[in-house]
Specification:
alpha/beta; Rossmann fold; Lipocalin; 8-stranded antiparallel barrel
């Protein structure tokens, strides 16, 4: 064999046999992570699957946001999923390639769940790590491999959640990935569910009380997740739907944060005006529109479950200051409440309501 031909032959064999060149890009190449914490978590998940076996009815697949069901989301998990023998297969920091590796190294062994909830890809979107198409390829590979390994399992493929406090290139990248991923749904074996809008205010910002670091969820964020998938998941599992009030929360998925239109009956007829609220944990701030240019600030705003209380003060034409003690509850996109005050020595109560804009 001539030297040039020998060189070309060696080059051909090297390329053909190189395992790294089989894959188009990193998002679809199954790889493990080298750190000990990840290995320990992987071992724990394999132990879970062994213990659960065929009793597991639903599995959750993802990264730190899924793993967070064991942290901020643990109480919501206990109400919605513990009785369904659910298994959490989330590992913080994972990307699509790591989930693909886990599928081949024990995470699915012995399982025959009715449903799998998948939410993965946000870590692939960091900086220039992967393009939109590559991230979509990675998630698609996960869906296909899961279908291959668990052919009887039906998948709830969730849109990747929005991230960053304000609209950004990172959030736009995620939205573009979601536009591709929704095409994977066939409404027979794969169901697409997108509730990311529930994590975003009308001005495009993400509320701190839903995502404290604008990536990971608070307990309220996990309530949103659980409620958003409950109809489809309960139908697949054949369980009675868990109602929001049964979760111990009874809270609107979006909480009180947002813009509202509030209405109160007066002797001159109903009055409707703007109301802006911001909920941060158990605290509420905000303001009621008094007229086109003046606002009444909320003081001492508190939330307990789906019930709230606060004080609003306004001045009268005679210079007197009156305080309204307001209490009520939020259910979905509706507020029902009452305002109590003392006027000319007499206690007065007025009912009011509000609708989310």
């Amino acid at each position: 064999m001539k030297p040039i031909h020998r060189f070309l032959w060696i080059l051909y064999v090297t390329v053909a046999l190189s395992p790294r060149l089989v894959f188009a890009h990193s998002a679809v190449e199954p790889v493990s992570r080298g750190d000990q914490g990840w290995k320990d978590r992987q071992d724990l998940l394999n132990k879970r699957t062994t213990e659960a076996g065929e009793k597991a009815q639903v599995i959750f697949i993802g990264d730190s946001i899924t793993q967070g069901w064991e942290g901020e989301g643990k109480e919501v998990w206990a109400k919605y999923y513990a009785h369904r023998n659910a298994v959490n297969l989330g590992i913080g920091g994972d990307r699509t390639q790591h989930v693909l590796w886990r599928f081949d190294h024990g995470n699915l062994d012995g399982l025959k769940p009715k449903a799998a909830v998948i939410m993965i890809g946000t870590n692939n979107s960091n900086g220039e790590d992967n393009t939109v198409d590559q991230i979509a390829d990675g998630v698609t590979a996960i869906v296909r491999k899961l279908r291959e390994k668990l052919p009887q399992t039906r998948m709830l493929l969730l849109a990747i959640f929005p991230r960053s406090e304000n609209p950004s290139l990172a959030r736009g990248k995620v939205l573009q990935v979601n536009q591709i991923l929704q095409k994977l749904a066939d409404d027979r074996n794969v169901f697409w569910i997108d509730f990311g809008y529930k994590f975003v205010n009308s001005d495009g910002t993400i509320p701190h009380d839903l995502m404290p670091d604008y990536l990971h969820l608070s307990r309220r964020g996990y309530e949103i997740w659980a409620e958003a998938i409950e109809d489809k998941l309960s139908a697949i599992l054949g369980y009675t739907r868990v109602k929001a009030e049964q979760s111990g929360a009874g809270v609107s998925p979006a909480g009180l944060t947002g813009e509202w239109a509030w209405t109160m009956d007066t002797p001159n007829g109903p009055v409707t005006a703007a109301l802006i609220l911001k909920q941060d944990g158990d605290n509420v701030t905000g303001k009621f529109a008094r007229d086109a240019t003046r606002w009444l600030e909320i003081e001492n705003g508190k939330v307990n479950g789906n019930e709230f209380s606060w004080i609003v003060k306004r001045d009268r034409p005679n210079g007197e200051m009156i305080s309204y003690r307001m209490t009520g509850k939020v259910e979905g996109d509706t507020i029902t409440a009452r305002a109590k005050t003392t006027l000319d020595g007499n206690e007065a109560t007025s009912e009011w309501s509000a609708k989310r804009k």
